[in-house]
Amino acid sequence: MNIATAKEQIKNAVRIYLQKNGEGEYLIPVVHQRPVFVMGPPGLGKTAIMQQIADEMGIGLVSYSMTHHTRQSALGLPVIVDREFDGVHYQVSEYTMSEILASVYDCMRSTGNREGILFLDEINCVSETLSPAMLLFLQYKVFGGHQVPPGWVIVTAGNPPRFNKSARELDAATRDRLKVMNIEPDFKAFRDYSLENGLVRSVISYLDIRPDDFYKVTTQVNGMNVVTPRAWEDLSEMIKYHEALGIPVTDALVSQYLQDPDCARDFALYYQLYQKYKKAWQVDRILKGGADEAMTAEARSARTDERITLAGLLLDEVREHMDACVKEHDRLAEEVAQLKREKAAAEAGGEACPEVEWNSRRDEVRARTSELKAEVADTQNEIGNMLHFLKDSFGRGLELSLAVNDLTASSRATAFIGQFLSMDYFEESRDLLLSKRRDDLLSEIRIDF
User: Fold this and answer.
1) What pTM value is reported for the model?
2) How many helices (H) and strands (E) does the chain have?
């Protein structure tokens, strides 16, 4: 499965494990709550999705990498305590609370969340002395005699041994206590994530052209070449700061993140082309509907990389305007709600805002609402102009598909379309879906003799 599917599966498991009966008891006993085990290559975002799940569900998160833990740090230190039975006094060894469980209680204390995820990464890298204790922990959620607090779901992760020299295959007894999810690199899932989290368009457009460069782990004579989704995301973040500060994005920078010489060189070259295309194409003119036949013909004769880059540049500009409209709409909605609350309070005999001030704020909201309506209309026209230009230049090909898919995949774009509509978007998305369905049907009925 891909990382997006794994996220949904983990989220579903957490939701089910946290279900309670009428008496407030968890429906699934702790012993039957199999910890999730996410197995997959490095750099796919396993740790990142844990934070996303915790944020979306409003629960706590404690993360630990198991690679550095010894038996003592994971289980706690032994201490001697006095015991008595039938008048006989004796001493026994117990364990202090482990660092891991102590962190769970610290999280509950600092956040107020009584439920959460305890995420243990690199679980298949624990030392041999710790392995027996880990087996007990995975089944009974006990570390050194101390129970994981109720309401905390255990999620683990690891890399296959071929990617990590300290990793090893889990034995049958351990795997039989886990809810196993094997994940693989998937460009579409990463692309959707990139749109949602604002990776720079130069990275997205390059990977649209060279999707095979999205994930590369190869062994060479002089070592391993590694390019992962994490590397692309971190490079994107660094590019943002370089551009904001006017610092050139060079081969030396790119190669620090894309640790494959060919991939680093190709992206560095493309980045320079991207900047050239950004200056050459009059994006604002196209979005305002000013593209003439000469511009359409020039786009039609462009190379594939330039076509995809142009589509990306148009999308970035449109999505920025869509996002601004949605944010202003939300601000105005809150201000209108506040004005209504104040008016209702005044009518109920409560403390009232001075009428002059209230009327002034109302008039300001009305003026901004009129401005927003104009901005929405302009943005709707921009969406139509973009889609028409791409269709006139390239037909219903890759470029138009990318534009429609980006508007569909981005929550910011769908929020605009959901609130304000875009008939051009609906028309093109419908036509593309019909065209795809037609091609699928033709493929299904094709007979080879």
Assistant:
1) 0.75
2) 18, 11
